[in-house]
Amino acid sequence: MNDYGTLAATDTVRIERLLPGPIERLWSYLTESEKRSAWMAAGRMELRPGGKVEHIFRHSELTGGDDPVPEKYRSFDPEVRSSGEVLECDPPRLLSYTWDASSQVRFELTPQGDRVLLVVTHSRLPNRDEMVSVAAGWHSHLDVLRELLEGRTPTHFWSRHMRLEGEYESRIPA
């Protein structure tokens, strides 16, 4: 399985990861604030259609040995917040919600033996620059999640993200 995201449509990035299970464990890392804060963002999440979703990103706290925050993302330091509304929730297999009312994210979980296939689809992205940033962001965050689930200590979020952003610049057509 390729770790890189792909374009599922002209405004949609899709990324797949085969992660350690069981499915309930992975679901908890998507939905519980304390666990989600270790790989992406803290914040409450009401797991029902119409429920509120809050993300409080503190990227510099995700990993150790990190490089300084890149100039491009200085406005994200020390934190940045986003919100949304749950569209679908079918624990522990499906969760989708709006992201700041402008885009949508969908998580699909499918057990595969002792592992779980996680498919993240982020749609309604307004332009190529946003698609590059979102693809690199999901890729970086899912790398951190995989390392945590495998019992490893994640390092260097920002340098990883910037390297991946450069790679997605060449992967996503202009």
Task: Give an overview in words.
This protein is α+β, with helices and mostly antiparallel strands. It has one domain: Alpha-D-Glucose-1,6-Bisphosphate, Chain A, domain 4 (2-Layer Sandwich), CATH 3.30.530.20. It has helices at 23-31, 33-37, 128-149, 157-171, and strands spanning 6-9, 12-20, 41-42, 52-57, 80-90, 94-99, 103-112, 115-123. Strands 1-2-8-7-6-5-4-3 form an 8-stranded antiparallel β-sheet. A hairpin with a 2-residue loop joins strand 7 (103-112) and strand 8. It is globular and about 40 Å long. The mean pLDDT is 95.
Q: Helices and strands, in N-to-C order?
A: EEHHEEEEEEHH
- Stretches where pLDDT is under 50 for at least 5 consecutive residues are none
Across the major sheet, the strand order is 1-2-8-7-6-5-4-3
Let me know the number of strands: 8
Q: Write down the CATH class.
A: Alpha Beta
Gap from first CA to last CA? 25 Å
Q: Might you state the CATH topology name?
A: Alpha-D-Glucose-1,6-Bisphosphate, Chain A, domain 4
